[in-house]
Write a structure and sequence with these properties.
Helix content is 65%, strand content 9%. The chain has 408 residues and is α+β, with helices and mostly antiparallel strands. The chain has two domains: 2-173, PAS domain (Beta-Lactamase, 2-Layer Sandwich), CATH 3.30.450; 201-407.
Length: 408
């Protein structure tokens, strides 16, 4: 079995299963197990009679950080799919690791799982151990544990846990293709690239907002210099006031789609993550070998109906992914338009800046006015560069998603 050697190898006390094996479980709204497949039953070690009707935390391992489940329930109870690395417990006390994609479905939830093997998984195992120890030893709450998981996602260069774990899902799917000695799935690769482009665009937007915030101090400095060079209300003072007013308008516009709750960048990030989870779930369901032969007929599961239900969920995942991608394309276009509008507004700031440079020349750089104008030059160059990067990245995202939809 591939999972027995190299990175991701089975360790003492770990129940083995192969990369080719995929499994699922389905619960009601309360988290009570209603169905699953033969791989889930075998790997968990529980008989069907003990699994069905039991809470899904029957297989929860005591070393799992509560913060993971805090994030998970917070997402699925709002109707969002999510994923997580999970260490589960077998009936005999052994354990097994999975990357689970959890999907809200009609009257409950579906969890599909695969065997993880990437470096991201290795890092998360170490983080889980730290969080679990803090929860047990120092009473770290589930909410604060979740915040530390969010902080780790940001440390890894992502804007949120959802975006991070969506990328991790892509990496695990690609690694699984490699383990199974088959070509990489083109769709998964394309979606991973879209996610990374989105994170770069978000980072540029955050940095752009910071540049505008820092820019607010320059007109104040200009006004202080002007007070030493001219009477109150002189040309330099007027220039500084006009510049401050105009830059604040741009800063507020920028903050509306970068800062604050439910800003357009966050909404785009959530939709892209949703697409990745739905496509990942679809891929797993398509590959999952659901064979009714050999399954017990006396445990209360109608396997014929279960197979039909899974096929319906698989098709819904594909349809919902397209819907989410359509929404995401709209958000990407909005970001592009907003960036272009800010770039046009920057032309007005440039005019004011040039007037400042003219006054600086007229006064022969008395009192350090030239240094202040040089600061404006530097900020403007940085802002223009970031705006161009954001527009390019948003176009990449929009075009890539449109291309994906045409080819899917």
């Amino acid at each position: 079995m591939d999972g027995q050697a190299g990175f991701g190898a089975t360790h003492e006390g770990e129940t083995p299963f192969g990369f080719e094996e995929l499994f699922y479980s389905r619960t009601d709204k309360r988290g009570m197990i209603e169905a699953g497949n033969a791989v889930f039953q075998r790997v968990s070690g529980y008989e069907w009679q003990k699994l069905l009707g039991a809470p899904h935390n029957l297989v929860r391992h005591r070393d799992m950080p509560k913060g993971v489940f805090y994030l998970m329930w917070n997402a699925i109870q709002k109707g969002f799919p999510i994923a997580a690395y999970v260490r589960n417990r077998c009936e005999n006390g052994e354990f097994y690791w999975v990357l689970a994609v959890i999907l809200p479905i009609e009257n409950g939830y579906l969890s599909v799982r695969l065997k993880p093997s990437t470096e991201t998984f290795d890092r998360m195992k170490s983080l889980y151990a730290e969080l679990s120890d803090q929860e047990k030893s120092f009473g770290l709450s589930a909410e604060n544990s979740a915040k530390l998981l969010q902080a780790e996602a940001i440390k890894q260069g992502f804007s949120s846990y959802s975006s991070f774990i969506a990328f991790a899902l892509c990496e695990e799917l690609k690694a699984r293709d490699t383990k199974l000695k088959r070509g990489a799935d083109r769709r998964t690769k394309m979606l991973a690239e879209i996610n990374l482009a989105l994170e770069k665009a978000t980072d540029e937007q955050v940095r752009l907002l910071r540049s505008f915030e820092a820019l607010q101090s320059v007109p104040n400095n200009m006004r202080i210099v002007a007070s030493r060079l001219e009477p109150a209300g002189g040309p330099v003072s007027a220039i500084s006031e006009n510049y401050k007013a105009s830059s604040q308008v741009i800063s507020q516009r920028l903050a509306s789609f970068v800062g604050g709750e439910d800003n357009i960048c966050d909404m785009l990030s959530r939709e892209v993550a949703r697409v990745l989870f739905l496509i990942g779930c679809n891929r797993i369901l398509v590959e999952m070998d659901f064979q009714k032969e050999g399954l017990p007929s006396d445990v209360g599961i109608d396997w014929e109906k279960e197979q039909i239900l899974l096929k319906e969920i698989e098709q819904k995942c594909s349809a919902q992914a397209r819907e989410a991608m359509t929404v995401a394309i709209g958000y990407a276009a909005d970001i592009n338009r907003s960036s272009a509008e800010i770039r046009r507004q920057m032309l007005g700031l440039d005019t004011i800046r040039v007037l400042g440079r003219v006054e600086c020349g007229r006064m022969r750089d008395v009192g350090g006015l030239s240094t202040t104008i040089d600061q404006l030059d530097s900020f403007h160059a940085d802002i223009k560069q970031r705006l161009e990067a954001i527009m390019e990245l948003s176009e990449v995202i929009e075009n890539a998603m449109s291309s994906y939809m045409r080819s899917a």
